[in-house]
């Protein structure tokens, strides 16, 4: 099996701009977020893309639809690609979480894999569901290339897994809005990271040449 996956983080939202945890909250793109997606759509226009997949959350779907339009392909929604469910932390900033959930937030930053967010998820839960989803996509698109639009937590978890990282440190992987990350999957336990957090398209197409 060989499948090339273009992983894209969704465009900017008002909560991104305000530093608020989004999780499963269904926040749309800002005008800037839509413009960011257009820049990446231009970059990918000449690439041979066989399929488009997206988290079912609005910010990811809007981004994916912009990317898919030049290719005339539909976007397939995959619920398992949703961001971490931040439960009671959604809509709050890091500072507000630290002030209101001091003990559990400290535990989460040091051990996110196994720490249960109040009314939310553990990172381990996210890892399991997003790995299953990406392997299913790879099996559907053998010897093909697919764009998968998801979220910061999901993409960091996938990349950290490919690199064999201790995922308790997944948050140390910087991931910008509408960044492009490319992995090639060969088997369920064999993949290569080809490109990470590339945003040259946001500086103009010439910057990517």
Automatic annotation (TrEMBL):
Write out the GO MF terms. Answer: alpha-ribazole phosphatase activity
Write the record's keywords in alphabetical order, separated by commas.
Glycolysis, Isomerase
Q: What is its EC number?
A: 3.1.3.73
- Check the record and name the InterPro entries matching this protein: His_Pase_superF_clade-1 (IPR013078), His_PPase_superfam (IPR029033), PG/BPGM_mutase_AS (IPR001345), PGM_Phosphatase (IPR050275), Ribazole_CobC (IPR017578)
Pfam families per the UniProt record, alphabetical: His_Phos_1
Top EC category: hydrolase
Keyword Oxidoreductase assigned: no
Residues annotated for substrate binding in this entry? 9-16, 59
Q: Tell me which Gene Ontology terms the entry assigns under biological process.
A: cobalamin biosynthetic process
Return the SMART domains for the record.
Answer: PGAM
Q: Which GO terms describe its cellular component?
A: cytoplasm
Keyword set includes Transmembrane helix: no
According to UniProt, the name of this protein is Alpha-ribazole phosphatase
Write down the species: Desulforamulus aquiferis
């Amino acid at each position: 099996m060989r499948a090339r996956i273009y992983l894209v983080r969704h465009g900017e939202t008002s909560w991104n701009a305000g530093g608020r945890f989004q999780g499963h909250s269904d926040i749309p793109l800002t005008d800037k977020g839509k413009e960011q997606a257009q820049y990446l759509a231009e970059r990918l226009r000449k690439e041979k893309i066989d399929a488009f997949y997206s988290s079912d959350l609005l910010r990811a779907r809007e981004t994916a639809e912009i990317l898919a339009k030049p290719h005339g392909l539909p976007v397939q929604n995959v619920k398992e690609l949703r961001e971490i469910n931040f439960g009671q932390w959604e809509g709050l900033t890091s500072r507000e979480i630290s002030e209101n959930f001091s003990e559990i937030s400290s535990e989460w930053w040091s051990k996110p894999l196994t720490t249960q967010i109040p009314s939310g998820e553990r990172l381990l839960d996210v890892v399991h569901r997003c790995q299953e989803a990406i392997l299913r996509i790879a099996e559907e698109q053998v010897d093909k290339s697919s764009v998968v639009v998801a979220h910061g937590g999901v993409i960091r978890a996938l990349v950290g897994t490919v690199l064999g990282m201790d995922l308790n440190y997944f948050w140390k992987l910087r991931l910008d809005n509408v960044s492009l990350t490319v992995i090639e999957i060969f088997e369920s336990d064999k993949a290569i990271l080809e490109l990470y957090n590339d945003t040259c398209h946001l500086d103009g197409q010439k910057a990517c040449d």
